[in-house]
Design brief:
4 copies of one chain form a homotetramer. Chain A has 403 residues and is an alpha+beta fold. Chain A has helices at residues 2-10, 18-21, 24-39, 44-47, 56-59, 100-113, 137-149, 151-159, 193-211, 230-235, 249-256, 260-277, 287-297, 305-308, 343-351, 363-388, 392-399, and strands at residues 64-81, 86-94, 117-128, 131-133, 166-175, 178-186, 214-217, 238-248, 312-318, 321-331. Strand 1 (64-81) of chain C pairs antiparallel with strand 1 of chain D, so a sheet runs across the interface.
Chain lengths: 403, 403, 403, 403
């Protein structure tokens, strides 16, 4: 090991090249030791991971020095009545934020007692939008027209790169000399950004050749990936999911110690009016908490918490209580690829019965999306209830951390 | 163990109550076994965590069943020239997205060779904004006036609840009968949401008593916490950080195989014009990737990736090359509290030399914020460079996952 | 007249009922006299209008007391190279803001000398989006599915109400129990909101009957009419227009006393980065000034300045100078209906050669849209040039008003 | 006249130079005749204006060829209970959109019968925000620090340019190398953009000299003027106004043929949820209609309809009915300067009792702002009521135009 450290130190050997001459665990150990030497930090626990990393060092993480361990708690059982998910589940949440699992758990309890959350997938399509430069607005219009008129050729180019994905739409948006082509795909059980990017590269080449458009960037931010964007609310991205539940006054009172009118008022003043005045794109209480918890547990891309959490929560007062719903227009989610193959992550997916590809293809990812939608509903319900009962601060004081 | 499972099954014992009668590791094991029995899933690796969980089950995660392990890679060394961070660091990134660490690493290399990233903290203040209901707009105005006129009493109420935090601002925003009071605090080394929530509860009580305002929710979404919101761009939240670096044409060519004009064009057409037309609040390439990687590694709240990543990336063409900068108006970050005390997370903070509270208080969190800003700059640079060189798809094909 | 005033005073006669018993001009005179009596204000000039009001009191303005006179100046000639407008025009601008006409005039001069503005209409469709209440998310999905599956019936219902309009799209957006159906129409030469509203009422009835959806409002703000909204940027509304022009360094220097690089820098720092950080949906300098000036002169609905002006201005540095473009995604404009039939307004439309319906239908409105796009380009160019040359304040001092 | 036309035709004489050698009315007549000759359009009615234009050709409109006449109707009486406006008013609305005056009139009737609208001005400050370029982020921070530390010098520079305005705030926002300084002023009875621009130029020079910042544009779009922008919602701009009224069930039923719950539901589903999902910055039904009508009648800048109309409408269900409010965070409005001095416009201001400067200074503009807020409330109430009663389409059919 000393030899390696010496060669790393001298620059003879590159840090990322260790896996070329050492088995994964040894490479990681050498790298970690080198970093410890450079920084003086002890990284012993980081190095005491127990997952297999043979694939990880190739597909998930370069320059690996170990693994961080994030506590996973469960909330549930949560009754879900979707088209793909129909039954009860325990929701795994990876989190370090005290009170979160307890809060979601309370929401699950209310939903399950109410007979379950109705869930529907409204749209399904992952996107990538290259941006091209045109010579002038006439040329830009010409490029857009070409795309509109050559759908079959575009589909052929895209689908030549993938055995799973299907190109379902190609929308053009022109801004001056900038031509954005938003390509949408059915990515089955994959979240699909990788598949979509590769297919889009092929389509971009085709468009450039046919029209003289100059490809500026394979992603032109009209996708929109990992940034909050109204286009994702308006057109949807990934799986668009809505989940809702009817709660009676009695149940509201018993579980949340509040009432229908107060729940509705909190939602209106906070989630609707507050977010409106704040110039927000998120009209919810804390969807990001649940999305982040599930995403980290289940090997999803945590940067997708950004758009995955742009939820709208609505509370309708009904004759006997309330109907509460969350809508997630833009949930990027999958059960194959990315971090889903790592041991602990795959176990969390197994807990939900959605590890790996489904039969038919896409059914696992959609089931996962439906369960996630219902879990976000549980989280929203619980926090709205807590706020309504003005219990938030007290809950934090009891379970909190940085007093 | 069987006894426990039977009592859990029958409902005699609540899942969350196990820690009351068992030591943490046993409680977690029993709970995991119960969940395995209920779902048929094997959760062995999830249970083979190696971190100490004595505090975790109390402060970080209820209903714990184990831990998910996320690979951590390092990018660097990264040279930073901030007011709190001046030196070189290896950046720990917890990720399952192939190519990310390699990409950030390339950016670090460019920055370090260019002499380092200049970084500045522009503002520093964590916020919570209760919403009150007024009787009418006259009353609403009266409440706002009272808040404006009683700053000392508000500070006293807030600071009675915390030995660390300092209330630095109280802004009122009236919308019809809704009065939002956005309280801002200096939270020193803590990210501070917890501290701020507790202090805000006290302030809210004071305002309600003095004015007859009815407290509707301790958070009125004008904070804005865990939702993308323009108010955070406009006023800042958490640490507002800017990082920048000047790159010569020669360095751009050598590291990124492109040139200054192309980098600038990609940034303009993608990050500025693309995001503008998409109705986005994020004018960057993939800040969320870096923020998520650092946040998960270092025990930050991953739901804060939402606002933490709302960055603006700018590229100025200069006589000899470019000056590239990222600005993060709203980075919630801390080195104490939350998940920062867990073994692996604390090691990642140690790697950056910022574990625990700093001297003087606040200096660790600010150093951490500066390093994070520089790391996001590295990530932006690298992706812009890759797009400029049209290498994105190729990189994904080589390192990707779900082909 | 005294009799009428007495009866108005006593409440026997309603102010709006005067036209039922008096010819238009007399009714207006009586009403004005009554208001003068009530308020003590002299409204003599308001009453000295010279337009015919026979139709106006029926179709344009209830409770009329006179007319306000807004000065109209001309800018031009402006050379336009569109698909509908190919030639040179003088642009009528109704305005009271000193320096505006002069500024647009300078922009026209630059464009015309450069050979004219290339203009293209990218999309064309006026929208109305009723909102329905569903029982739950399952029902909401069912309603959306019904709409997707019954396009022919929807078209038939819509087009039964109009001899001109054609329904071109019906997009459903579900949010909890809220189902928005965004109906898009080709409205030919009309701006079309009225036609579209009537047709949408019919479609809404059909959907309600077929699905059990409860119609809540004929406009659900997903249209989006007279509010700034990203959906209009993303999907377009009314006529979507782009106009651009290439300027040489010599011309920039001569007309604007600045250079290509400075123009580009002003646009990037102000229109792109400034608007981004401000959380704006308008990435331009002052498109609203030109839109308002043309709209008031030409009898358009001035409330449509809101979305009509949500322009994006782009400046590309080219080998010999710049290519400057404006894109107006959402320009509601027409040459028949609304205020287009009033004497002075029709004269302004005549000045542009677009009064009344075109042959074929739609060609006048599109020609008008192209000219308007080019005029906005002239305005943007001129203000960017003025800012670049730091002449803004000086121009205001010379031509301004409220010193 | 022929001589002039010949010289104009030949280019010897510039169109804008006519006023230098002719009295205003003659210059306008010659110019109009020339344009008629060039275009073949008859502009007789445009030329038959009856207002005095001696000042207009100097201060309001260059290249004048006549005036457009816009019908003015009145709605009212409207009872207002503000701090500046306490009484009843007839609201002048310049419009060509059938049904608008009638609709506002119905809203006025409801408000007045309910005892009047309570109105409050929440903030008051007109802004201009120059953008400077810094060398790097360290320099940018230095510039911001200088501004924060030299408030007195900035005030002195600003106020040297105006006898009326007072600089009340200077906020810095840094984005990479872009430093925006948002200067806020009390502009008394003026809308004030002109005053503020001139003062800002002086301040910009001071900052540039003292810090080495390079002034890029006197307006950096952080103002934000004539573009929809969240910063104006968050910080306010111009006069920030809220108006509200309590309506009983009986009154709702009588005037609007609907009930409290339905009004509240329409507002929630349309103005809150619809606008949220549309990515809108306007959470109202049609505030722009009323703002445009009043602005054109009263000589305000109609391009300011953009931000002036970014209202939030709220409906609270109360024990006996509803409390409806509108909040206009960003209403640019004045009673001196701009178009307020034109004959017909001044008469409309007189109708409201706010022509010219008030005593004390600012009181007229504030009174005008309060009345405008109440008028927008009337408009919102009426359209919400019409939608609630599903009367919208019918109203359009009866009063509409382009059937």
């Amino acid at each position: 090991m000393e030899t390696y450290r010496g060669r790393l130190k001298s620059g003879q050997l590159k840090l990322y090249a260790l896996e070329q001459s050492l088995p994964p665990d040894e490479a990681v150990a050498v790298r970690r030791a080198f970093i410890e030497g450079e920084t003086g930090a002890s990284l012993a626990t980081l190095g005491s991971y127990t997952i297999g990393i043979g694939q990880a060092v190739k597909k998930n993480c370069e320059n690996m020095i170990g693994a961080v361990q994030v506590p996973v708690g469960v909330a549930g059982p949560l009754r879900v009545r979707g088209e793909y998910a129909d039954g009860e589940w325990y929701i795994p949440l990876a989190t370090t934020e005290g009170a979160l699992v307890a809060s979601v758990n309370r929401g699950c309890s209310a939903i399950t007692r109410a007979g379950g959350a109705g869930v529907r997938i409204l749209r399904d399509g992952m996107t990538r939008a290259p941006v091209f430069a045109a010579r002038d607005v006439e040329h830009a219009k010409g490029i857009a027209d070409w795309v509109d008129g050559h759908r079959d050729a575009i589909i052929a180019a895209a689908e030549a790169t993938t055995s799973h994905g299907r190109l379902t739409d190609a929308v053009t948006i022109v801004t001056g000399t900038n031509v954005f082509v938003r390509l949408e795909f059915d990515t089955k059980d994959a979240m699909g950004m990788n598949m979509v990017t590769i297919a889009s590269a092929k389509v971009a080449d085709l468009i450039a050749e046919a029209t003289g458009a100059r490809l500026v960037a394979l992603s032109g931010n009209m996708c929109t990936d990992k940034k909050p964007a109204a286009i994702n609310l308006v057109r949807g991205r990934g799986r668009s999911v809505a989940a809702g539940v009817a709660l009676s006054e009695a149940l509201i009172h018993e579980v949340f110690k509040t009432d229908a009118a107060t729940l509705a008022e909190v939602n209106m003043r906070k989630n609707l009016i507050g977010s409106a005045r704040a110039g927000s794109l998120g009209f919810n209480a804390h969807a990001a908490n649940i999305i982040a918890g599930i995403f980290i547990a289940c090997g999803q891309d945590p940067a997708h918490v950004v758009e995955g959490s742009s939820a709208i929560t609505t509370v309708d007062v009904t004759p006997g209580g309330v109907y509460v719903a969350v809508t997630l227009p833009s949930l990027p989610i999958g059960t194959v690829g990315g971090g889903t193959g790592l041991d602990t992550q795959r176990e969390c997916l197994s807990l939900l019965g959605v590890a790996g590809g489904g039969t038919p293809p896409g059914s696992h990812a959609r089931k996962f999306a439906e369960i996630t939608g219902a879990a976000v509903l549980a989280g929203e319900l619980s926090l709205l209830g807590a706020l309504a009962a003005q219990h938030l601060a007290r809950a934090h004081q009891a379970l909190g951390r940085n007093k």
